[in-house]
Amino acid sequence: GLRPSASGSGEQCYVHASGDERPCLSKQEIGEYLGEPDDFNKAVMAEWLRMDNYSGLGFDDALRMFLAGFKLPGEAQKIDRFMEAFSAEYFRANPDVFNEQDTAYTLAFSVIMLNTDHFNPRCASSLAGRKTDFGMPLCNPAFSHSHRQLTPCVY
After folding, report:
1. Structural element, H or E, at residue 4
2. How far is the C-alpha of 35 from the C-alpha of 30, rounded, in Å?
């Protein structure tokens, strides 16, 4: 379960279910570990995703639930692995939302890019004020729902 970190930083960390005094893992450490390219780390991420039930959840709520358990690393390749794993599990749990898993992946990665663009002061151009530009890559036949229905949820 979660408990306050012993470092006094105010950060929460995960501890063993027995509650013993093993060292805890920070959300950043979990994100770094799950994002590694090794097959074992990918299998752990797949199990991590199965801890939550995304069935019947809106895409944005499911993505928030997934991202709440760790800090997403800044490395693009790791983010790609997270979004690939999430989209596979979301597609499995909600087969009627998207016609293809790749569409869920595109939307998930787009949401991360939009948030990075909006909250990172180092981003030169901003999609934040251009909702129509954000929705354009999502306008394809693979969506069961129109991008106009999904864009307000994630924008």
Report:
1. strand 2-4
2. 8
pTM for this prediction: 0.72
* Distance (Å, whole) CA 98 – CA 133: 21
Active site residues: 75
Give strand pairing partners of 98.
143
Distance CA 44, CA 32 (A): 12
Exposed/middle/buried for 12, CB within 10 Å: 0-12, 13-18, 19+? middle
In angstroms, rounded to a whole number, what is the distance separating the alpha carbons of residues 85 and 105?
A: 9
Taking only the tens place, the pLDDT of each residue in 70-80 is 999 989 999 99
User: Is the pLDDT confidence value at 148 over 90?
Assistant: no
Crossing angle for the helix pair 59-67 and 147-154, to the nearest 10 degrees: 40
| Contact by Cβ (8 Å): 112, 83 | yes
What are residue 14's DSSP bridge partners? 2, 25
67-123 per-position pLDDT tens digit: 998 999 989 999 999 999 999 999 999 999 999 999 999 999 989 988 877 766 676
90: closest CA among 67, 129, 56, 114?
56
